[in-house]
Amino acid sequence: MARTTRGIVAAVALAILVNSARAGDLAVGFGSADVTPDIKAREVFLAGFGHNRKATEIHSRLHVRAVVLRDGDRKIAIASVDVVGLFLPFVERVRARLTGFHYVLVGATHNHHGPDTMGLWGTHPFKSGVDPEYMKHLEDQIVAAVQAADAGAKPTEAAVGTVKIPELLHDSRDPQIKHDELVALAFRKPGGDGLAGIVVQWNCHPETLDSKNPRLSSDYVGSTCDALKAKYNCPVVYLTGTVGGLMTSMHVDVKDTNGQRLPEGGVAKTERFGVLVAEAAGRAVDAAVPARLTPFDVRKTSLLLPVDNAMYRLAKQAGVFDRAMEPWAGDAYAAPKSLEKLEGRPGVRTEVGRVRLGEVELAVIPGEIYPELVVGGVPDPAPTGADFPDAPLEPAIYASMKSKYRMIVGLGNDELGYILPKRQWDEKAPYTFGRTKPPYGEVNSLGPDTAPILCEAFRRLGEEKK
């Protein structure tokens, strides 16, 4: 039987890629390592939902997946880990061990069925669920994955493809704004057959197994990576993007291959959802066009953000959060200063980045940013009942990115919780959009000033002259 039309299109696209996408000095390598904790050796508290949720079995292994890009003697490493989030001090320890890199980005998939890596999901709110021994192992494995990717880097050609899949997203908070674009970077050896690797960036909470799940799992991310790896016979790196607001796989109507709706919170839906994301990513890969990924331009800035969340301050006092706080005096760019006693309005130090890879630009955001802050759509005027109706609109992340292709890495180098527009902040009655109780996002946010400071800092990074 003749090859399918889709197969012919893919072959033509790959041929164009071979002949037209000479990438100069670009070299790319991939690496991975298993980061699954041993649930038989010790208790493993699952992160992302309630407290005291202990792993009883393993549904799927957890991994760190890494890609290293080289432009001459400049190297950039990007690692993505199947955990809920990683704090900046942890990332800085990883960076200290990876010498010779121009930039190291460590992100989390925001997996809700991996071990507690932040301290919030122990036996109760003021008991950390973090295992220090596991965190050291995790650090070692991230370093090993990046080093393997670096050692295997070879001359490579690149292509970029995108696809919109709003049907695979549920937005659980008004206004209904979805960031529904999946971006795929496809790499191949010059003149070679097949792909050398794929990087996929998608915007959805990995929480398909739901809150009652006792299994250790990478959720749909593992299924997505496995399906793509099987189809293209190459390594895959998955990057989480815009997941605030809340972009989720829960309540998405997923059907099996026979058209039967799969129940919420089950393994069948989780694995099928991952395959559907992989199929969409495959469409993006097959339609990818050649792109230049050099030269590199990395811009990052250290920021101090005020911590107004009373529970976060209490968690710090209780030793749940293993990271320093500093005095907040109204200056996000203040030099680091130690805080002798947790009083007044403290701040936490984080990092925001813009990484340009030739025609592709990455926004590196340290938390779960709402889609309206990325693609636009913050209500104007503010919804009735908002606590700060006159707050200025934050500069949207994508509006300030002028590159041909745009990507976003959420939970990049830090996890600050939700980052939401100040004029949508809604802790006090009456509540917006006819609600009878305050929405969820504010509970897990540093405070209402996070988005204005962070979005403005990102805008400024783009205007700095090099």
Search tags:
466 residues, alpha/beta, 5-stranded mixed β-sheet, 7 helices
Q: End-to-end distance, in Å?
A: 56 Å
Spatial arrangement of strands, main beta sheet: 5-4-3-1-6
Query: Quick one: overall form?
Result: globular
The radius of gyration over CA amounts to 21 Å
**Overall residue-averaged pLDDT value:** 93
Strand residue content: 15-25%
Number of helices: 7
**Class computed from helices, strands and strand pairing:** alpha/beta
* Sequence stretches where pLDDT stays below 50 over 5 or more residues: 1-23
What kind of sheet is the major sheet? 5 strands, mixed
Number of domains: 2
Helix-strand sequence: HEEEEHEHEEEEEEHEEHEEHEEEEEEH
Q: What's the number of extended β-strand segments?
A: 21
Roughly what percent helix?
A: 10-25%
Indicate the topology.
Layout: H1 5-20, E1 26-34, E2 57-58, E3 63-71, E4 74-81, H2 88-97, E5 103-108, H3 132-151, E6 154-155, E7 157-164, E8 170-171, E9 181-188, E10 197-202, E11 215-216, H4 220-232, E12 236-240, E13 247-248, H5 267-286, E14 289-290, E15 296-306, H6 310-317, E16 326-327, E17 346-357, E18 360-365, E19 368-369, E20 405-410, E21 418-419, H7 450-463
Parallel strand pairs: 2-11, 4-5, 10-12, 18-20, 19-21
Antiparallel strand pairs: 1-3, 1-6, 3-4, 7-9, 7-14, 8-13, 9-10, 15-17, 16-17, 17-18
3D architecture notes:
It is built from 7 helices and 21 strands. The protein is an alpha/beta fold and 466 residues long. It folds into 2 domains: 286 residues, no CATH class; 144 residues, no CATH class. The strands form 6 sheets. The protein has a 5-stranded mixed sheet, with helices on one face. A 5-stranded mixed sheet has the order 12-10-9-7-14, with helices on one face. Strand 17 and strand 18 form a beta hairpin. Helix 2 crosses helix 3 and helix 4 packs across helix 5. The longest helix has 20 residues. It is globular, with a radius of gyration of 21 Å. The N terminus is likely disordered.
